[in-house]
Amino acid sequence: MSIEYLGLSKVNGPLIVLDGVQDAAFDEIVEIIVDGTTKKLGRIVEIYENRAVIQVFQNTDSISLHNTHTRLTGHPMEVALSPEMLGRTFNGIGQPVDDLGPIHAKVTRDINGKPLNPVAREYPRNYIRTGISAIDGLTTLIRGQKLPIFSGNGLPHDQLAAQIVRQASLGENSDEKFAIVFAAMGVKYDVAEFFRRTFEESGVSDHVAMFLNLANDPVVERLITPKMALTAAEYLAFECNMHILVILTDMTSYCEAMREVSSAKGEIPSRKGYPGYLYSELATIYERAGILQGVNGSVTQIPILTMPGDDITHPIPDLTGYITEGQIVLDRALHGQSIYPPINVLPSLSRLMKDGIGEGYTRVDHQDLANQLFSCYAKVGDARALASVIGEDELSSLDKKYLEFGREFESRFIGQDVYENRTIEETLDLGWELLGMLPREELDRVDTKLLDEFYRPAGEQSQQS
């Protein structure tokens, strides 16, 4: 028999305090009836003796100390799951907002998930093609990986996220089931509408499940959204045998919400005012990616975060870098040159790339080509630094070739149209075409046999074309 509690002891922002509670559990969901008509949901976030502190998912504007009835449900936050979720749009707490009716649930699951046994994990292999050369060629996304995008305010991470959703696939010859779970946290209405419209117009919305938490939605709801999305992804991957790509944007909004709620609870702040458990909270989200042995499915994550002040040492990107397997860094200088996507390849890396590319996955020359492009582009930086001191006219002929290579690399390899979907062969061939601008003796990161097969000096390329 459930017990209803009349009235409250305290209301503080998104938190309410209830005294005299019996048999309450941490993370338990409660139903709050305001004025006998309006129903709100909350979650117990703190228990001390017979006092419970409850986060309210909706706003608390209409709540007072004397107009509420509170009932404990006896279970944590759950979400109804079904393959029908693909092609649907939900709010931040998993309720459909697309006017297509409720989901006919196959199962319900706790949104906090269950810890994956490390022994049951399978090492990530094979790659996910995004159609973007700077990612596919140099920071390849591997199935089961978590690869964040570090962006900044005003940079085109929303367009990049939409392009990845439109173009992502398991490759040209794969017949495995692939789908995308997209979660947006704290986004403005026009940004949410941009995502929704882009997916519909490109015809990919039928294999995308969207979770949208808008900027004017309650801040507490923002803490639930990524867990909702990941619970849906785990169901589709591990119970429906699908390969799922999860895109989470913007993790900075999630962390700001965590800081706001922590401050309302009166907790002692840590770096930059964020709670001391920021690392563990981020880890509980990022670690819900991977592959299980014996299951023909995977969960791959691309979290997107905007670095406050473009500071990569800020706690959010700093802790994210510790947990994840690499990063893709967007650069403001490249964006200023109208290069899209403005990916700075030198600080970007994919730590699992080497295990999902090469012969049998992409092409035999992929790893050597990526190493050589990284090396040559690093030397472009040296040539530019020297040119800024002595002038470009005084550079050696080799340094001038590196400058020309750098310009072509940025405009043609990194830069591409927002609707351009390149195959992996097109990306690799373009890399070799650019390396043809440099003397063969400069290519010291590539096996001689691969050079014989793929390297063509720029003069020979123009003759063949």
From TrEMBL:
Biological process annotations from GO: proton motive force-driven plasma membrane ATP synthesis
Domain ATPase F1/V1/A1 complex alpha/beta subunit nucleotide-binding residue range list: 131-350
Domain of life: Bacteria
ATPase F1/V1/A1 complex alpha/beta subunit N-terminal domain location: 9-64
Chain ranges of the ATP synthase A/B type C-terminal domain: 355-455
Gene3D superfamilies: 3.40.50.12240
SUPFAM superfamilies: P-loop containing nucleoside triphosphate hydrolases
GO molecular function list: ATP binding; proton-transporting ATP synthase activity, rotational mechanism; proton-transporting ATPase activity, rotational mechanism
CDD domains linked to this entry: ATP-synt_V_A-type_beta_C, ATP-synt_V_A-type_beta_N, V_A-ATPase_B
Keywords on record: ATP synthesis, Hydrogen ion transport, Ion transport, Transport
Keyword Transmembrane helix carried by entry: no
Similarity remark: Belongs to the ATPase alpha/beta chains family.
Function recorded in the entry: Produces ATP from ADP in the presence of a proton gradient across the membrane. The V-type beta chain is a regulatory subunit.
Protein name: V-type ATP synthase beta chain
Biological source species: Cuneatibacter caecimuris
Lineage: Bacteria, Bacillati, Bacillota, Clostridia, Lachnospirales
